[in-house]
Amino acid sequence: MTLDPARTPFPDGFLWGASTAAHQIEGNNVNSDWWRKEHDPAAKIQEPSLDACDSYHRWEQDMDVLAELGFTDYRFSVEWARIEPARGHFSRAEIAHYRRMVEGAIARGLRPMVTLHHFTIPQWFEDLGGFTAEGAVELFARYVEECAPIIAEGVPYVCTLNEPNMIAVMAGLAKRGEQGFPPAGLPFPDEETTHAVIAAHHAAVKAVRSINPDIQVGWTIANQVYQAVPGAEEVTAAYRHPREDVFIEAACGDDWIGVQSYTRTKIGPEGPVPAPADAERTLTQWEYYPAAVGYAIRHTAELIGPDTPLIVTENGIATGDEQRRIDYYAGALDAVAACIEDGIDVRGYLAWSALDNYEWGTYKATFGLIAVEPGTFARKPKPAAHWLGGLGRERHLPRL
């Protein structure tokens, strides 16, 4: 670990928190597109989400643990498929449920950041054609407007869509009839979906600001930290632009932009270069590279300019080795601190993830700060949770 306990560049009001996504923790999200996919043999999903972490019923426990650990912020998503299970039919009970979550966070001293779309959509919306369907942007904006009772008061930050570049990449895979990802880099995103989600974001920003102009609204980008092999700078820029930069550029004028990174991708003259065979890897088979978040922050800041604050909305590691988890977070925070010291406007750091959860096909990739016991759903904070929570509470590194 390289972060100096006496080095405290993180300003007052800095967001210290953890993130989750509804489908990955709630359980039984039966009206979503992912629920249908998980139960379709043709999709070849390794395992379904089923009860997930049962956080739909246990969200109070989750918030209690985060608050007790010392975190000051909690990012969670509301589920469109619950709020609008059938087109044009909005569940007042579900809206009230998510409003109780907002109020519960505030009551525990946790600032809520609400994500309106975190990968999943209602089945009826998928049947229409998703974001590229005629009228899809208007339908998404209408859903955002219906979320007004949830976010109108006490929600300082709203994220419209999580990782729109990954939405476009997955759409491109689906159109080409492909499955899975290459060992390095990302497939080419679907251009039509790229334009559609950008339009949906801009419509959602307008809707959120009409609900309450004091809400700080933005979206989050999956940063792959493309690093050029010497001589491949132009290839790297061309590879990165449709997969990342176009989405960062679309955030100009937003109140903030979310940076999300986990590892790096090297680019050579012929494209992505896999990590060396002897590289340390995480449970997701990504290269262990804590410094990634620093590179992601610097690239995002350079591209979007000094007028848009940055928030690290996801960063973490899937591992069963708790010392390596702490080491990863220490290295990542060292990189974040260096960015702040260099004058980059970074407003917060939210770890992925608060809980061991459903990682889109598997429960084996344990990113969580808090373990969830299968069957009983008992929550048990890991050493990294105490470490990071102490940092948020004390503003310096706690001793192990």
Overview of the structural elements:
The protein is α/β, with parallel strands linked by helices. The chain has one domain (15-394): Alpha-Beta Barrel (TIM Barrel), CATH 3.20.20.80. It is built from 14 helices and 13 strands. It has helices at 22-25, 33-38, 55-69, 80-83, 92-107, 123-128, 136-146, 148-151, 164-176, 191-211, 233-249, 292-304, 322-341, 383-394, and strands at residues 15-19, 73-77, 111-115, 157-162, 216-223, 226-228, 256-261, 265-268, 271-273, 310-315, 346-352, 370-372, 379-381. Strands 1-2-3-4-5-7-10-11 form an eight-stranded parallel β-barrel, surrounded by seven helices. It starts with 14 loop residues before the first strand and ends in a 6-residue tail after the last helix. 48% of the residues are buried. Residues 396-400 have low confidence and may be disordered. Belongs to the glycosyl hydrolase 1 family. One of its GO terms (cellular component) is cytosol. GO terms for molecular function: beta-glucosidase activity. This is Beta-glucosidase. InterPro entries: GH, Glyco_hydro_1.
